[in-house]
């Protein structure tokens, strides 16, 4: 007798409640939502199409431009790092659709809690270039003022921000507003206790939060199979959180899924989990060497599913992306890169040493004040000694 | 002025904070219907509703991390950690997030989070229920760490902690929850960051905080009978430490004894001894003495009397700094 | 359009893979495995029956006796606490079947990692009474030598032991033995990061570990609905861990489920999650007052599903539990209680103060040695002063 | 004797430990194929297989908690924490389980777990990658805390830590991973618990550990040119502290300077200053001076030179304890 028949395996790839998978997601591969195929074909999806019915070709071109721009930002930042202008950079290469599709779905009063790789999301929120880079240059501990763009300071501690998003969402709910908090994190992050606790709290409080996981297949050198034995999207339902698995290289599918989740949250339906299946085409950071662990061929395989190429093909097919338009988009991207580089090198490299004491506390602190004045005296004495 | 226990004074301070500012929310395990295992939040959920007084799922990182998000949203969360020994699962959120977010965001985001921790031993409890983890937080930049020792301070300091824009670790001396005292709504106005001289004295400065303050006062009374004059200082703020009154006292007495329940190595006493030595070296007649818990885990209840600083150990240290006798080297009292 | 149809809800109560629920668990209520009804009737379950086919009436009587005994132990310990002989006690009242049914399924070379309420499990492992109580009396930091009975020192930090069980199981696997680690924990514990990380690690390593959750409906004053929005057993499959939901007041169903999980683990099939649905009929601990939070009627409702009564009825019906036998069982329980009381009061209340320094480290430690000798000198000086 | 970097010396120490005892297993994030982000475990998985060198899911509590279970089963786990600032999610398992299980079980269960932590700043890294959390662990009973400062010690001490039946927090000075030195398999035999006098001196005792040991040696060399004789002591063990050589030194010099990168309040320097004052009060010519990181979070890279103790700050403190000048009170050097 096999024990398999006596226990609840629950572990097969789940299909949506009601209806067969085919009815709902004609375009999907392996139970994944896809609206634009790698070859640029638009596939119909009765379940998701209505959520992007209002998206015009103009809008699509906008998303295309966004993706071109953030890829250019990424390339430029990588170059800045190689040139010693940045200390480090975590490339988003390959994840443009996941970030632009979700970021562009948000309202300005929504609030993003991200990890360190969400430069594309930050771009959609309107982060200034200097603020995008000062952290990576080592000038400041972080960039933008979170309240100015509705996006928290990125969390480096893996997973911590998912709880912050949950708490923020609880606050929105208690405030009676329909703003939504969105937590971005990676596949590796799903192993952290914090992320699982966030799902418990979000489900318990029915908080208007979206857990947006970019499954880019890798956590530094560790493949996603080490972190999860099932699709990552299979985890949330057990916590009482509905989930979706979308092609993260399909900007339209990501947009649709995010809109669905936002709508549910705004209408009091609580949290939703989205797994955007994508790929980190670059190194983990500029310090990393993926050659040590990436199987040969894998990169090529994913290059064939490139998020920008496929939307480009669709738009070309529709005659929207003409050569002229493509040139204009590229010029915009170059202008952005130029502006960003200028903002980068303008960032202070040698702040006043005494600022090390600033903003530790919001009010006076006797201990720090003493250390600061002693340090000031010391610095002055050095001057004295040197003079 | 009303007489109440320290626990009730906290309860009334929390009630006032909830009433005064609707951004104040309480989060914790069993703080709702049960009113907390020590009843410090008794009836507050009934009064303010489940959106202000929130029973959370059983996870400390979850509690603190959720509070961070609420603070981002403009709330002033007050988190209850059920017992001292259960704060560690929340340690990362406290040390890497709560403590650092103001610095990280260069002041853009405030973290007015109060984390209430019933702490210390002496109640005959099982493991993890009698710890004194305050030194971990006092060593963590970005936090303020305070502890109360009497009902009036409990009431005033919890309100001040909640009103403070910085995160505050609020250590409640659990074995003194039943200590009674007069409480008025307007305290004497001594800010929570300040130490308080409780008894003036000329021979020895004795610094304590939280649960050992009453013990220190007993020691001063006993010493007075023997003709030794002790200045007892209630530290109140463990980070930052209010050094001015201690410096003034030590410059007068020349002798310092410090006591806490936490392990000696790297405890608050180490910082106090080091800093006072730096500041008052030429006034000291003897090395500052520390009377503390040992460098062991908190022991089972049957051994807690051996572990905890008590009147006799304080008096022994007083004798030592007075040069009278030295248990450490075996020189016995002649009596 | 409703978003419900477009997202994978996965959230309905799952049924076993293949076959209708009725085929597999005829006796179950709400998708729960049950072999003995509250009225004592034995219901057939094609999936589970084969796993207890070898259980004789004599064996059932043994389980019955175990349950009577551990309930008696529990009552006696509660009395000892009331009389000041114990500082605290965490009653297991109501959870006898969950603990005996699982505990008796184990081999001596399996290893238990429990929480503080598993006195019944400890009894099945052969814990001595003094060792069961010394922790609660405050004499020692814990009781038995874990290696002598194959059961770790109970964990008070909620959930921590689930990771220990996972690590131990990984060790078993690497040692090439077929021993299994069993983690016991409560419904409240499922909210802790550690428990979720344990599932991640166990699934990733395919460790031979059983996650045995006693869902006794309460975590002190918090009802299980605050911790989990779905059945607790629904959580594990998303981690890639098959799960079962059994009537935790049905000792036979618990035995069967545990055997299934043990068998899978021994054969290299990895972890299994068991939710035993039961009820904490007493207070959380002797310090607790459930009147403050327990809805009226709830206790009565569960009293009707008492684990001992139902097995008693079954055995009476079969003529196994005669009045004589019942008396013998009661006498055994009383004898155990008597022996336990004696062991309790014999426990040292005033250990040598200097033992406070013992066993902090396994080898010499200069810092502690100094503190110990200074403390010894201090104690000696007190004697001197008092003489 | 071979010349190698400190990182390579750790690698070879780990390799020896794996080869000598098949109960030794390595656990961590990215320690397998990648060989760790600092390559300290480079090629070890290739050599010993994925059951001995285990890439774990991304969760520090999971790593430590799994190690506890392995230790229960008789293994000797060596856990790598990728960077100092990522140890906090594992804090509860370390403080409440790893540290206490031997005491809790009255010696029945041993916890021969080594937790490797690359720590400290000076590498221009982003937040959480430059912290010095050692004081938290030195304040925790049940742990041993050590730190190496040169390749030979790295090699010998990691092997000794793994062989030790108690849990050991092993702090690796990450900015010195590339420091080169001779390494032999048989070290000089100084146990990991002992401090080492690196240079004899008569004027000032200067205690450092980990990354600041080379800085301290530089300071001693610079001071020697000015005619000040400094005795540099490499602490090596932070818990317990090996006081004997420090006491002996201070009784000779009368002056103590202590340095570490961690925040000053409640750091190792506080304990050292307090304990040495207790033990050598009548020999001290000046209060022990601490040259440390400030009581702030570790700053962004652009400010780390301001934060980190360096040669000049050490010399300033030497001048201060020598009574030569006092930057603290504004008395400037005449030079
Ligand atoms: C608590 C913690 N542990 C370890 C790290 C080191 N670390 C940084 S990124 C990373 C991998 C994260 O992988 P994933 O969550 O998939 O995100 P991705 O980098 O792929 O975007 C690790 C282990 C960290 N930042 N925080
Ligand atoms: C980390 C931690 N937080 C809080 C507590 C306090 N506490 C002890 S038992 C308990 C409830 C546990 O509920 P559950 O897991 O359902 O187990 P049960 O008591 O019902 O057997 C709580 C909150 C603890 N022991 N550890
Ligand atoms: Mg990833
Ligand atoms: Mg429970």
UniProtKB/TrEMBL annotation, chains B, D:
What the entry lists under InterPro entries is as follows: THDP-binding (IPR029061), Transketo_C/PFOR_II (IPR009014), Transketolase-like_Pyr-bd (IPR005475), Transketolase_C (IPR033248)
* Annotated Pfam families: Transket_pyr, Transketolase_C
- Return one GO MF term: branched-chain 2-oxo acid dehydrogenase activity
The Transketolase-like pyrimidine-binding domain sits at 4-179
- Which of the seven top EC classes does this enzyme belong to? oxidoreductase
Q: Which UniProt keywords apply?
A: Oxidoreductase
Q: What is its EC number?
A: 1.2.4.4
Cofactor section: thiamine diphosphate
Cite the SUPFAM superfamilies for this sequence.
Thiamin diphosphate-binding fold (THDP-binding), TK C-terminal domain-like
Domain of life of the organism encoding this protein: Bacteria
Listed GO biological process terms: branched-chain amino acid catabolic process; response to nutrient
Can you say what this protein is called?
3-methyl-2-oxobutanoate dehydrogenase (2-methylpropanoyl-transferring)
Q: Which organism is it from?
A: Mycetocola manganoxydans
């Amino acid at each position: 007798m096999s024990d398999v028949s006596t226990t609840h395996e629950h572990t097969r790839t789940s299909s949506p409640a009601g209806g067969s998978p085919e009815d709902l997601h004609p375009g999907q591969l392996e139970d994944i939502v896809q609206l634009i195929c790698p070859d640029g074909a638009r596939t119909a999806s009765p379940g998701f199409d209505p959520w992007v019915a209002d998206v015009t070709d103009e809008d699509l071109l906008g998303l295309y431009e966004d993706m071109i721009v953030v890829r250019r930002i990424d390339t430029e930042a990588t170059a800045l790092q190689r040139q010693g202008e940045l200390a480090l950079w975590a490339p988003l290469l390959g994840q443009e659709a996941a970030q632009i599709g979700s970021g562009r779905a948000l309202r300005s009063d929504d609030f993003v809690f991200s990890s360190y790789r969400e430069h594309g999301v930050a771009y959609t929120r309107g982060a200034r270039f200097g603020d995008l880079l000062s952290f990576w240059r080592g000038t400041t501990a972080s960039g933008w003022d979170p309240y100015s763009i509705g996006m928290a300071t990125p969390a480096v501690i893996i997973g911590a921000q998912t709880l912050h998003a949950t708490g923020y969402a609880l606050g929105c709910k208690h405030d009676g507003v329909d703003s939504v908090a969105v937590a971005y994190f990676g596949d590796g992050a799903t192993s952290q206790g914090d992320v699982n606790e966030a799902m418990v709290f979000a489900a318990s409080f029915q908080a208007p939060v979206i857990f947006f996981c970019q499954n880019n297949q890798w956590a530094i050198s560790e493949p996603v199979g080490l972190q999860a034995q099932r699709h990552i999207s299979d985890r949330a339902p057990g916590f009482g959180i509905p989930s979706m698995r979308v092609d993260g290289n399909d900007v339209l599918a990501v947009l649709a899924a995010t809109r669905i989740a936002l709508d549910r949250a705004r209408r009091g339906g609580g949290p939703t989990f989205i797994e955007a299946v994508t790929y980190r085409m670059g190194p983990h950071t500029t310090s990393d060497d993926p050659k040590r662990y990436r199987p040969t061929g894998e990169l090529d395989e994913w290059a064939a599913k490139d998020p920008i190429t496929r939307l480009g093909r669709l738009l070309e097919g529709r005659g929207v992306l003409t050569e002229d338009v493509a040139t204009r988009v590229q010029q915009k991207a170059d202008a952005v890169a130029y502006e960003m580089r200028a903002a980068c090198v303008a960032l202070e490299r040698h702040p006043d040493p005494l600022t090390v004491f600033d903003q530790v506390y919001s009010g006076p602190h006797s201990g720090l004040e003493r250390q600061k004045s002693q340090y000031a005296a010391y610095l002055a004495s050095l001057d004295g000694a040197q003079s | 002025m009303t007489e109440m226990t320290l626990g009730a004074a906290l309860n009334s301070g929390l009630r006032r904070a909830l009433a005064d500012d609707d951004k104040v929310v309480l989060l914790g395990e069993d703080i709702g219907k049960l009113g907390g295992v020590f009843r410090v939040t008794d009836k507050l959920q009934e009064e303010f509703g489940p959106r202000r007084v929130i029973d959370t799922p059983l996870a400390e990182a979850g509690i603190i991390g959720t509070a961070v998000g609420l603070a981002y949203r403009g709330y002033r969360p007050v988190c209850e950690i059920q017992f001292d020994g259960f704060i560690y699962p929340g340690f990362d959120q406290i040390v890497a997030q709560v403590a650092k977010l103001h610095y990280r965001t260069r002041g853009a985001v405030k973290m007015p989070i109060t984390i209430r921790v019933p702490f210390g031993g002496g109640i005959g409890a099982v493991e993890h229920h009698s710890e004194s983890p305050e030194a971990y937080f006092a060593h963590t930049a970005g936090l303020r760490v305070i502890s109360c020792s009497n009902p009036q301070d409990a009431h005033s300091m919890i309100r001040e902690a909640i009103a403070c824009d910085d995160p505050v670790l609020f250590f409640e001396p659990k074995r003194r929850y039943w200590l009674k005292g007069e409480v008025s709504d307007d305290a004497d106005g001594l800010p929570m960051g300040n130490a308080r001289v409780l008894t003036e004295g000329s021979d020895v400065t004795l610094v304590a905080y939280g649960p050992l303050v009453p013990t220190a006062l007993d020691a001063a009374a006993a010493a007075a009978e023997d003709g030794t004059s002790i200045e007892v200082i209630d530290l109140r703020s463990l980070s930052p430490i209010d050094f001015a009154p201690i410096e003034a006292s030590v410059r007068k007495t020349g002798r310092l004894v410090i006591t806490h329940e936490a392990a000696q190595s790297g405890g608050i006493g180490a910082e106090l001894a080091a800093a006072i030595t730096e500041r008052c070296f030429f006034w000291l007649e003897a090395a500052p003495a520390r009377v503390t818990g040992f460098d062991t885990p908190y022991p089972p209840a049957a051994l807690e009397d051996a572990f905890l600083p008590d009147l006799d150990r304080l008096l022994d240290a007083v004798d030592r700094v007075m040069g009278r006798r030295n248990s450490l080297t075996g020189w016995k009292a002649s009596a």
